[in-house]
Structure formats: C-alpha cells, structure tokens
C-alpha cells in the first residue's frame, strides 16, 4: 500500500471515529495535511485558520505564504515537504486548540508520522512543540534540534527516531520584525540538520 493510500485511510478514520464533533460542526471541512507522503521533513502547526478551513489545505493564508518564502530560501518547495496541523478542524474564531482537542487528534498525527517516517519534524509554534517536547519553552529552545524517540500507536516498543526542530509560528513572526528574523535564521538551519542525519 502506498504512503498516500495509507494517509487516506487515516482521513477516513478521523471521519469514522467522529473526532471532536463540536469542532467539526463549526468547521467547513477537515484539513488533514498535504505534500510529499515520503517527505524527509514534516512541518506541524497547531490548527487550521480561516483560509485553511475554506480551501481544505494547511498553511494557505498569510503565514503559509511566508512559509513558502522561507522554503524557497533553503531551496525547497511545498512539494518536497509534508505539512499538517495537530488539530484538523478549525477552532471557532481561530482560538487556540484546547488540550482535549489536541489529545483527541494526537493518535492520528502519530499515525501520519508513522506512515511518512520523516527524519525531521519541524514544529511551528508552542502548541505543536509541546505535543512532542512538553516541558520546554519555545522562547528558550527555538532553533535547537532535539533528537527524540516517538512512541507510535501507543505501543512503547514501536518507536520512530526523529529530530524535532522547534520554530516560532510564522503567524506570530508576521507582525513582529525581530521574531521574523529569528524564524528566518532558525529556518536556514534545516538543510544542515538534514545533511547531518543522512
């Protein structure tokens, strides 16, 4: 079975399992993720915003445009990577996803990573980072790669070794020139990190 087919079965599982029915009721559609199903790098944000909810794709608004620009800076395109969010339905009024909502979607995100088997997981923003590195503060560890073993399917024996690179969320950086430059600097580390772990 191809990776894309396996990812499609996870989409169906989210629908069949009726994950977060309240969020689903207020959203236009499920925003699962897109990109290369065999990517070495997976970017993970927190939840879809208004544009994402309308188009059904992650990171297509202003922060997505900024992300595309940064990818271009390091010689990559959207087609080279895979991009998703922890929570797959837009929270009302773009509020932060709740701990319960993140917890409900986490097993599906783990399955996505299990299928794709990336070498690097780039977390965008603190919500995403805290799913993998719960005890750290993004202001202190942004741009610092961390080697971790993710347990998959809740099975402690089945793990995926990845490098987590915590970055500020592009949306936050859009309105803060200092954070914008920090994010660009941190982002530029990605090719060297990939090279190092190949």
- CATH architecture designation: 3-Layer(aba) Sandwich
**Helix-strand topology string:** HHEEHHEHEHHEEHHH
Name the assembly state: single chain
Bulk shape: globular
Name the descriptors.
6 strands, 6-stranded mixed β-sheet, Uracil-DNA Glycosylase, subunit E, 198 residues, 10 helices, alpha/beta
What features would you describe in this structure?
The protein is α/β, with parallel strands linked by helices and 198 residues long. It has a single domain (3-197), classed as Uracil-DNA Glycosylase, subunit E, CATH 3.40.470. Helices cover 46% and strands 18% of the residues. It is built from 10 helices and 6 strands, in the order H-H-E-E-H-H-E-H-E-H-H-E-E-H-H-H. It has helices at residues 3-16, 21-26, 50-55, 62-73, 99-116, 126-132, 138-141, 170-174, 177-187, 190-197, and strands spanning 34-35, 41-45, 82-85, 120-124, 146-152, 155-167. A 6-stranded mixed beta sheet has the order 1-3-2-4-6-5. A hairpin with a 2-residue loop joins strand 5 (146-152) and strand 6 (155-167).
How would you concisely characterize the structure shown here?
With 198 residues, this protein is α/β, with parallel strands linked by helices.
């Amino acid at each position: 079975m191809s990776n894309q087919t396996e990812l499609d079965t996870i989409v169906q599982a989210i629908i069949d399992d009726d994950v977060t029915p309240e969020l689903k009721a207020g959203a236009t559609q499920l925003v699962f993720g897109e990109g290369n199903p065999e990517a070495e790098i997976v970017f993970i944000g927190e939840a879809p915003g208004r544009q994402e909810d309308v188009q059904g794709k992650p990171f297509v608004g202003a922060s997505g445009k900024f992300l595309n620009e940064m990818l271009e800076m390091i010689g990559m395109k959207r087609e080279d990577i895979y991009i998703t969010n922890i929570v797959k339905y837009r929270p009302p009024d773009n509020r932060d996803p709740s701990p319960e909502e993140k917890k409900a979607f986490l097993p599906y995100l783990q399955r996505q990573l299990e299928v794709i088997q990336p070498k690097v997981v780039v977390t965008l923003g603190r919500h995403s980072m805290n799913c993998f590195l719960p005890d750290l503060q993004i202001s202190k560890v942004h741009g610092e790669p961390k080697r971790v073993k993710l347990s998959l399917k809740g099975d402690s024996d089945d793990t995926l070794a990845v490098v987590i690179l915590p970055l500020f969320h592009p949306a936050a950086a859009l309105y803060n020139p200092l954070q914008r430059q920090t994010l660009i600097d941190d982002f530029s580390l990605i090719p060297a990190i990939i090279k190092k772990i190949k």
